[in-house]
Amino acid sequence: MTAFKGLVDDMLGIVIPCCGEENGVFYQHKTGGSPYKIPAVFDLSFEFIDPESENLISGNAPNLGIRLSDLRLHPNVDDKVTIGKVTYLVTDSLEDGQGGARLIMVEDTESNQYDERQ
After folding, report:
1. Which of 45, 73, 82, 83 to pair with 34, CA 20 to 30 A apart?
2. In 3-state terms, what secondary structure has residue 80?
3. Contact status, residue 45 vs residue 32, Cβ threshold 8 Å
């Protein structure tokens, strides 16, 4: 890790817990294992500049700002994220090249229907 990436990782380690979800975000890799708590910032929409085209990209999808070093494994499509009583599936990981990522998600209706029956 370069010195700059190390500084960004340190900064994200301070900022994300301060701005993140108070009740916790639980991450579970699609390969299995138990869910574990991570610091993250949740939002229902996003905007960013595509570095190749320099166009503004925006969308209305649940998404999660994370520090990659907080995950046990690299994020993958179909990993699960639970926030409160709602479970989401990761559909894309947009990495910033500096140790952070925005995970684009959809609601996991199968898991959430099961939870509502309990």
Report:
1. 45
2. strand
3. no
